[in-house]
């Protein structure tokens, strides 16, 4: 059985694991080593069973904890070449860290098959499509302003999808953020709204996917309740019944979310 487990998710930090049996991958590490290590310990995940760390991009809410963690746990780090160059040049990873760039097709990382694909953000950024040892497939895509063809392709045909549902448009436009920041978030190089996420989830459900994790919710411009309400409204209008036809779960900001088996 494979599982997707968010250790923490939001603008203050993001990290998750994809596990199959005892083996697992870590995706991002945006909080300190104590927080991440405590979460891994709570899940009974041994560092020796981790095949590596996948990094989506260079923003601090995805890489803040890497430096100290890797000094204690010398795992290989995977990502786009531009991101790895940034981490190396800015001392975000130890000099001795093994950096392996991913591009193009599926590559083996331990017992997992991993494909990186580009997402539309304001720095080089990727999502990951992961094949687990038991033959399942999941995709994680956060920090994207628009669903481009590579993203659509990566999300198609999965057993589980972890997709960004960052903001509610009304909350963003009526909130305290200055205009330039609102414009950045709404742009095609910003983040995905609840409405955009919901529309994509409906499409994926109609293609056969049944399990979804809503990730990277904004604390200022969204809420778990509002994100779910938007999804359920979109699905309900199409005759899809949540908890019967699909499972949709928001990921918690500061603690481990319930595991989603797929």
TrEMBL record:
SMART domains: Lactamase_B. The keyword Hydrolase applies. It comes from the Bacteria. Keywords: Hydrolase. GO terms for molecular function: hydrolase activity. InterPro entries: Metallo-B-lactamas, RibonucZ/Hydroxyglut_hydro, WalJ/YycJ-like. Coiled coil: none annotated. The keyword Lipid metabolism does not apply. This is MBL fold metallo-hydrolase. It comes from Faecalibacterium hattorii. The lineage of its organism: Bacteria, Bacillati, Bacillota, Clostridia, Eubacteriales.
